[in-house]
Write a structure and sequence with these properties.
With 304 residues, this protein is α+β, with helices and mostly antiparallel strands. The protein has two domains: 143 residues, Pleckstrin-homology domain (PH domain)/Phosphotyrosine-binding domain (PTB) (PH-domain like); 104 residues, no CATH class. Helix content is 50%, strand content 16%. An eight-stranded mixed beta sheet has the order 1-6-7-8-2-3-4-5, sandwiched between helices. Strand 4 and strand 5 form a beta hairpin. The radius of gyration is 24 Å and the shape is elongated. The C terminus is likely disordered.
Length: 304
C-alpha cells in the first residue's frame, strides 16, 4: 500500500478565483456601460416614490418565494418521497434545477429591496434611469452568487437524504452517528461527461478494525487493507472544490477479478467550502490511521 499526495497549487487556486470573479465583474461592468448611454427618463417615467413602492413589493414577493422554495426543497428532500429504492440519480437532476432558481429568487428579492433604497442615490450620481434601477438588482445577484460558491446551502439536504435512504436500508440511528457522510465519483470521468452534481452516489463510510465499510444509495462495499493498493490526494480541476484548495482522497482498489478501481471521495453535509477541505483532511487522517491498525472501531452496518 502506498500514499500519493499532490498538494493543491495556491497559484492555481488564486487563478480559479480570479477567473470566476473577473468574469462576473466583466459582464456586470459591460452591462452598466451599455446602459449608461441610454436616454434619460421622459416626463411620463415612473415617479421615484412609485418605483420605491413597486420595488419593495417585488422584493418582498421574491424574497418570500425564495425562502419558501428552499424550505420546500429541504423538507421534501427535493420532492423525493420513496426511499425504499435508489433515489440519487433522479434527485440530483432536480437539485440541479433547484440550485439555479431557488437562490435566484432570493437574490432578486434582495436586489429589488436594495433598488428601492439605492436607485435615487445612483440617479443623483448621474447614472441613467435603467442603470440606476437595475444595478442594485444585478449587484445583489452577483454578490449572492459568489457567496453561494463558498457557502453550501444544500448541505442540510445532503445530510437528510443520506440519513433517510440509509435508514430505509436498515442502518440504525446509532450507526449514523459514527460514520462519515460521503459521496463517490469516478476520477476518470472528464468535466464534460458530468451533469450538475459530480457525485455519482451518496452514503456513509465506517471504519472497523478489519475493513472500511461503505453503504450508499446505489452501492455497498467493504474493503480490507490487502485490497487497498494506494491512497491518493488530488484536486479535481473541474470542480468548485478547487476554490478551497481541497485535494480529494482517491482510493485505488484491487478487485477480485484482478482489475483495479479508482474511487474519488467527497465529504458531504458540510456548510462551507473551507469546511469541506478540513473534513477531507480529517477523512484522510482517519484512513491513514486505519491502515496503520489504529483506526476507530465503529459498528459495522447491518450487525447491530
Amino acid at each position: 500500500m502506498s500514499t500519493n499526495a499532490k498538494p493543491v497549487s495556491k497559484i492555481r487556486v488564486f487563478l480559479m478565483w480570479a477567473i470566476l470573479v473577473g468574469n462576473i465583474l466583466f459582464w456586470s461592468a459591460f452591462w452598466i456601460w451599455y446602459n449608461s448611454g441610454r436616454a434619460q427618463p421622459s416626463a411620463d417615467a415612473i415617479p421615484a416614490f412609485a418605483h420605491a413602492i413597486l420595488m419593495i413589493f417585488l422584493g418582498g414577493f421574491f424574497l418570500v418565494a425564495g425562502v419558501m422554495s428552499y424550505l420546500i426543497v429541504l423538507f421534501t428532500h427535493c420532492l423525493t418521497f420513496n426511499f425504499s429504492r435508489p433515489v440519487w440519480s433522479a434527485l440530483k437532476a432536480r437539485l440541479f434545477i433547484a440550485n439555479i432558481f431557488v437562490p435566484l429568487l432570493a437574490a432578486l428579492g434582495v436586489g429589488f429591496l436594495a433598488s428601492a433604497v439605492l436607485s435615487p442615490i445612483l440617479l443623483q450620481l448621474g447614472l441613467s434611469e435603467s442603470t440606476a434601477r437595475m444595478a442594485p438588482v444585478l449587484g445583489a445577484v452577483v454578490i449572492l452568487q459568489l457567496l453561494q460558491v463558498w457557502i453550501l446551502v444544500w448541505s442540510p439536504l445532503e445530510t437528510r437524504v443520506i440519513q433517510r435512504r440509509l435508514q430505509a436500508l436498515g442502518i440504525t440511528p446509532e450507526q449514523l452517528k459514527s460514520g462519515f457522510y460521503l459521496g463517490l465519483s469516478n476520477p476518470a470521468r472528464g468535466t464534460f461527461q458530468r451533469f450538475g452534481t459530480i457525485e455519482e452516489d451518496m452514503g456513509m463510510l465506517w471504519f472497523t478494525p478489519a475493513q472500511m465499510v461503505y453503504w450508499g444509495d446505489g452501492e455497498q462495499w467493504a474493503i480490507g487493507r490487502d485490497q487497498l493498493v494506494e491512497v491518493e490526494r488530488r484536486a479535481d480541476r473541474g470542480s468548485t472544490t478547487m476554490l478551497s484548495g481541497t485535494a480529494h482522497v482517491i482510493l485505488h482498489l484491487q478487485l477480485p477479478d484482478g482489475t483495479q478501481r479508482q474511487i474519488r471521495l467527497h465529504t458531504e453535509g458540510v456548510a462551507t467550502m473551507g469546511g469541506k477541505r478540513k473534513a477531507m483532511d480529517k477523512l484522510s487522517e482517519q484512513i491513514e490511521a486505519w491502515r496503520s491498525w489504529s483506526g476507530a472501531a465503529a459498528t459495522e452496518p447491518g450487525t447491530a
